[in-house]
Amino acid sequence: MAISKVSALGIHHESFSFHMVLRPVGISASEGKSLRKFPVISALDWRTVVIGLAADSGCGKSTFMRRLTSVFGGVAGPPKGGNPDSNTLISDTTTVICLDDYHSLDRHGRKENGITALDPRANNFDLMYEQVKSLKEGVSVVKPVYNHVTGRIESPELIEPPKILVIEGLHPMYDPRVRELLDFSIYLDISSDVKFEWKSQVSLSLSLPSLSLSLSLSLSRSLLLWLLVWQRDMAERGHSLESIKASIAARKPDFDTYIDPQKQHADAVIEVLPTQLILDDNEGKILRVRMVMKEGVKYFDPVYLFDEGSTISWIPCGRKLTCSYPGIKLFYGPDTYYSSEVSVVEIDGEFEKLEELIYVESHLNNISTKFYGEITQQMLRHADYLGSNNGTGLFQTVIGLKIRDLFEQIQAEAASKQAITSPK
Amino acid sequence: MAISKVSALGIHHESFSFHMVLRPVGISASEGKSLRKFPVISALDWRTVVIGLAADSGCGKSTFMRRLTSVFGGVAGPPKGGNPDSNTLISDTTTVICLDDYHSLDRHGRKENGITALDPRANNFDLMYEQVKSLKEGVSVVKPVYNHVTGRIESPELIEPPKILVIEGLHPMYDPRVRELLDFSIYLDISSDVKFEWKSQVSLSLSLPSLSLSLSLSLSRSLLLWLLVWQRDMAERGHSLESIKASIAARKPDFDTYIDPQKQHADAVIEVLPTQLILDDNEGKILRVRMVMKEGVKYFDPVYLFDEGSTISWIPCGRKLTCSYPGIKLFYGPDTYYSSEVSVVEIDGEFEKLEELIYVESHLNNISTKFYGEITQQMLRHADYLGSNNGTGLFQTVIGLKIRDLFEQIQAEAASKQAITSPK
To answer: Which residue ranges does the record assign to the Phosphoribulokinase/uridine kinase domain (chains A, B) (predicted)?
Structure first.
């Protein structure tokens, strides 16, 4: 990485001329290379860390992103004065870009070619690669914006290299070149069981005259999230139950072919499953959430419970902590995941009170907190966020802390290298 | 407790005249009070702590006793120059007396009355109470000796008050007066499943021409212990398989009526069960051993694993520790036992190597060791004792440490009381 002088502004930009190349289906990758590349001028006093976050639901992981940016102390919002339909979230330290912005075919184009947005042919991986690489090298880019309401590709926006760049969407680990750029990758895996339960509830809700927020009282928070995401996704096609069903069915083969296999490349997978605390649970309200962490990943020490490397199940509710039915159960142990050695931490059930949360946190190790109770503090600060009472919120927060830790390790290493190569 | 001057010898004895009263079946308890009581002259610089150890197999718990005395640093042996058939074991700190010595009916008498040794009517609880009480008050007693070979009550022996008095046998917690004298009580509970497995193996062994020690190579060590105890018990009646079966059948009702119910009074119960690591195990070689510890017992803090009051299962074999099949599994959790609140620690499986033992020890809490690895050191010192590779040996050692701790707490409390009542 070339290091030049740091300007007063901290970042050098040359020009913003941008050639948006929307390749038709089947265009060769070499043609994509005609894309203008910005000169490499890195004047940052940090090395941009790139995180990939993959999941089915497009770019609906805003809670995860808000938890992540909160760990760094900033508040995330859309780019100032930019495209009002921007999918980007920017905070002091973190920029989250939505990979839907790299659709090479708009909705019309996809319909014409009979392919879904999950199909790699509807996405421009050359541009994705070029721009993520540029940002990682400290160079700003001008990125297209996909408007989820109109389904069209709109006027582009400037993205400056942040300290932490999160690329979230359907394909962050699909292209080997993009994957290679990732310092850390996460796959959010909502099990088909949970999806199905939620889907049934969504169908029920949609049959009501209006989809009001008061539903949140009777539905689980997770369901509500799902519902709102679906509502947004379905806005394009109308709300009918039939169209939802059709859409789900249509997505399944592409999902299995292009999205799901990415999880084998993830450094961490968060699995959302039905609870095992209630026999034959079919409400789907209580979740069992597993964090699968790859071993041997640089800058990443997997979280463990009590005794590293052993297998443990733990029901913290007992004499010192009392929980209501069905309580909480944790599990920790080594496993293999797509022939990789992994460690798994699992939380089944919900936290009802602060005591339960801090008690669980105090027995987790390698969580990269800076002070005792930092996870609990983060969870309380955002108690209104979805999943704050279960493993989804806790593991999202843990991932945030691990990314902060990884960022700091990378900066420290870069600083020590620089000190060696350029002595005073 | 009256405290008089401590003589150079440490103990005052008055006289050894002894009236052995063997009451026939049905004699009233009040008549038993005619027994001579030694005057209370306590000149000891300690308060004798009394431990009760109950189990089915009479006084065959010598391994347990040797582990216990080893914790205190002494070597146990029969009283010097006493009855060669004495059942007593004496070390520097500990005296173990066998409650069979309080049989009021000898073998002939029992046969005549058609009752077993398990029947309370064959035992003199008045004398047991008087003598245990005297010893606890620092007064020596002259105690009868039951000869297990001849089945007769023989010339008595002198028992001086030790620091720790262990009364072991069939009925240490049967009589409420004796029970009240106990500072701590343990019930050794060998499950009928394990007994049955062992019994079958014993039958097999006994059908062989000779019962040699070389059998120990093919049989488990626990089985060998059982075999030797049975061999001794059966010596009286001949070795035939039929007589063993008959004896087992004959004991069962009395065992269930008089022995088994004592466990509800025990402060700690050690349960020996078949392994659950091997599906449908029917070899009975690998044991699952549980230590059930009553909550709220003075001077006794139950052992726990990782997190006091919660429920945990732990398989230590993993990345840091590798174990052969079927490995080791531990469990810890709160429970109720005969409507008492208890904590349970369970070890299923065997230790193959020192690393496994020290690893397990290092994760047990409240074990009352004086230095890191004391349990492992004790277990290694007596690696040739039965059960050194499984939970029986480990829990026996733990109980030894807990008794040492209890002894020291009681002495400290007695010393502080004395300091208050008799200032210089």
So the answer is: 50-199, 231-278
